[in-house]
Amino acid sequence: MLQALGISGPAEGAYRALLRLHSATAAAVAREVGLGTAAARRALGELTEAGLAEYQPGRRSWQPVDPRLAVTALVRLRRQGLALAELAAARLATEYDDGVARIRPSGPAEALSGREEIAARLRELLAGAEKEILVIDAPPYVAAEDSLRFGEAALARGVSCRTLYTAEGLALPGAVEEVRRMAALGERARVLDAAPVKLIVVDGARALLPLSAASWATLPDAAEEGPRPAAGPGGAAAPAASGASAASGTPEGPGAVLVRPSRITDALVALFESLWRQAVPLSPDEPARGSTLDSTGERELRDLAMLLAAGLKDEAIARQLRISQRTLHRRLARLLAELGASSRFQAGIQAVRRGWVRD
C-alpha cells in the first residue's frame, strides 16, 4: 500500500507493527514482523526519515505518527514531485523537439520509408494522443496484419476514438466480435461501402497515411503504448493483394507520409468528418427493450441487422457469421418476424427504432 509512496515493503511492515504496538524497540518490531534486528533497525530508520515514526532516545524505542497526518503529508509531497516531473517533461520535450527539428525535414509533411520507421512514428503519434484519434480502416488488405486496431490504450487514458470501417473490412471473419469488443471499450464506429484512403489523424493536428497499398502491411509492433495491430479488423487473415511482398514500402522510396499541423491536416479532418456523416453507425451490444428473444438469439439478430445495414451481400454476411446460406435465410426470416417487418427495408427501419442500428 505504502510502496506507491516510496516506502519499502519491510518498512511498511514495521510501520504496521508500530501501529499495533504503539511503541516498540527494534527487537520487538523484529519479532513482530519476522525480520532480523539489523533489518528492523533499517526499516525503522526509513520510517523516521519519511516522517512515519519518531525515535524516543530515553526508551530506545519508536512510536508511530498518526497515519492521517503522516501518510497525508507523504501524498502531498508525492503530488508536488509529480507536478515538478511534469514541468521537467515539458522542458525535456522542448529539447527533444529542437533536436528532432535539426535532423528531420521541415515543412507540413515528411515522407517515411521502411517498416521500422513507419512503426516508430506510429507509436510516437499514438502515444502523444490527448483528445481524439480518427481512423479510416480501409482496404486493400495486403497482409494478415494490415488492418490496424486502434484505440485500446488511448481509450483507457480517456482519449476519444472514432473509426470508420469499410464493408469489405467488416466482412472479414471475426470483424463483428472485434467491433463489439472495441465498442465495449468506448470506441465509436461506423461503416462505409468504401473509403478513398487509409488514414490516422491525432488531435486534429497530425496525420499518418500510406502512399501505396503495401505501405502498412505487417507492422506487428506498431503500438506498444497505443493500440496494437490486428489481422484485419477481427484478427483473421485478410485477402492478399499485389505488392504484399513489399511489406512497408521499398528501400528506394517512401511508404507513408506524416503530416504536421497545416491546411493539409485540416483537409484530412474535413474528409473524415464528411465520410463520418455518410457512414452507417454501428450499434453497441446492448439488450433491446421489448425483445422476446434470449440474449444469444438477440445477439444473432442484432449482428445480422448490423451487417445488412452495412450493405454486405448475403454471401459476405454468411461468411462473417460463419453460417450457411440456408441458415442465413432462416435467420433473416426470424429477423423479419421479430421486427414485424415484411421486407428488408422495413426491417432496417424497425432495427433503428429498436436501437439495434443507429440512424
Describe the protein.
This protein has 3 domains: 1-103, Arc Repressor Mutant, subunit A (Orthogonal Bundle), CATH 1.10.10; 109-281, Endonuclease, Chain A (2-Layer Sandwich); 295-354, Winged helix-like DNA-binding domain superfamily/Winged helix DNA-binding domain (Arc Repressor Mutant, subunit A, Orthogonal Bundle), CATH 1.10.10. The protein has 13 helices and 10 strands. The longest helix is centred in the N-terminal third of the chain and has 37 residues, at 67-103. By secondary structure, the chain is α+β, with helices and mostly antiparallel strands. The two termini are 48 Å apart. The strands form 2 sheets. The chain has an 8-stranded mixed β-sheet, sandwiched between helices. The chain has a two-stranded antiparallel sheet with strand order 1-2.
